[in-house]
Amino acid sequence: GVKKVNKAIVGIAGELVKGTTTTVHYERINSEIRIDTSELKNIIQKVQWKAFDRIRQQLAWETGHSEIEVKLINAAIVDVRIDGYKISNPVGFQGKDVSISIFNAYAPMVHLGALQKISDDLNLDLLNIAAEPYAVARSMGIEEADDFSAVFVDIGGGTTDVAVVRNGGLEGTRMFGLGGRAFTRRLARELNISFEEAEILKIKYSERKLNESVSSKIEKKLENDCDVWLRGIELTLSEFSESNILPHRFFLCGGGSGLPGLKKALISSNWKENLPFARPIEVSFLQPKDVVNIIDETHQLKDPQDITPMGLANLALDFVGEEKVLSGMLRRAVKMIQK
Prior knowledge:
Oligomer: single chain
Structural class: alpha/beta
Radius of gyration: 21 Å
Number of helices: 9
Strand content: 15-25%
């Protein structure tokens, strides 16, 4: 029979969901004293409050509302260094200069309230609300690989979510309001058919089930929209390009990622001129087998569109699993800010 579900983790995306990494440098007065847990807790709290103020200012500038209420929904320690040396846990170490980088994702309170109400109506214990691009980036176990760098692109129905990972650390997430439905609407207008018919046609085109002549015609119709989408990617990545070279590996997922024109657009060279790529771009599709810690015993999860819910399931394991020292401190700091 069907197993009753009691707990849930819910993904959220959209243009007002912001994810960014904040680094705070902390100079210790007495470098010979070993760092203890209370000192580390103090450093983490300073990072979090600094990040919270910064994100509120950014959202106020973007929306024109000075008092927009946001809530911290996800946090992860990206990098810890003492006197320039990268370490996993600074407790017990000596040193003068401590720097901690923490990724934080925020969402407007009004959105979170709506999701909480839905969960309550369904009698579900809401473990967490997570930023979807954060879940996608974490789905490959990036925190275990210091040399891993990539751009994750999740193309949904209404938005495209982008996450940039450098050296195993999540640098930030961004979203822009263009997804698969925009391409469906284009086909409906151009071919004078209903939205439902256009969606079926788009899916067949994505699955290579149309003959060459029809596929070529559809590709031509969607060319301009692919260009607009590519400009969105370019603009998004320009926000990450100020500090360093951009990762050349791209991983696509989401229901809209199957459109052949999107991969073709990314590989094309005409949009990369103003961005710091050191190597030619490589584009792959994330598959369910790439998601760590999740085993699909149903054998029904086969497509890139299954990656986001599987990534959320992977995050849920973090919430019910064993907690590391740094993660525990960070979670307590998060709860202070959420109050």
